[in-house]
Specification:
- The protein has about 140 residues and is α+β, with helices and mostly antiparallel strands.
- Helix content is about 30%, strand content about 30%.
- The protein is built from three helices and seven strands.
- The strands form two sheets. It has a five-stranded mixed β-sheet. The chain has a two-stranded antiparallel sheet with strand order 1-2.
- A hairpin with a 2-residue loop joins β1 and β2.
Length: about 140
């Protein structure tokens, strides 16, 4: 839907005082630019996954991503958690689907690239899902995204 390098335009106009969050080797003040990983053929697996959800759940997920663009790591209704090294996850609850996870990394200060999304079904992140996210992260680094 939104190729890497193009801005995901937020639909909200609410302003909040920027806050400072320590993330890896740099700090993020306020919002971040949300980018979607694309395969070498131009497909975006995260948007494909989000668009396949029921309409209400999909709209809610995009609304939460808008909040991340506006408020950064202090966005309401989502939780950020480091998994391994540069790989992090966004935890969200969506209507009709329940727990949902999006794996991401920061490619530079203020730019978040969404790598992989899946519906939560167990306590721990499944190994298969983690491997997919790591593979996409390494591909993005290799291609200089």
């Amino acid at each position: 839907m939104v190729p890497v390098g193009e801005k995901f335009s937020p639909r909200t106009t609410v302003k909040q005082k920027p806050s400072l969050h320590k993330y890896s080797d740099f700090a993020i003040i306020g919002g971040v630019q949300v980018l979607f990983y694309q395969t070498s053929s131009g497909r975006s697996p995260v948007t494909d996954e989000l668009d396949s959800l029921p309409v209400q759940a999909s709209a809610h997920a995009y609304e939460l991503l808008d909040g991340i663009e506006t408020y950064g790591l202090s966005a309401p209704r989502v939780i950020f958690r480091q998994l391994e090294g540069k790989l992090w996850e966004i935890k969200m609850n969506l209507p009709q689907t329940g727990g949902y996870r999006i794996f991401y990394c920061l490619i530079e200060a203020g730019n978040m690239i969404l790598l992989h999304a899946y519906a939560k079904k167990s306590q721990k992140a499944p190994k298969k899902e983690l491997e997919t996210a790591w593979r996409r992260l390494l591909d993005a680094q290799k291609r200089g995204i």
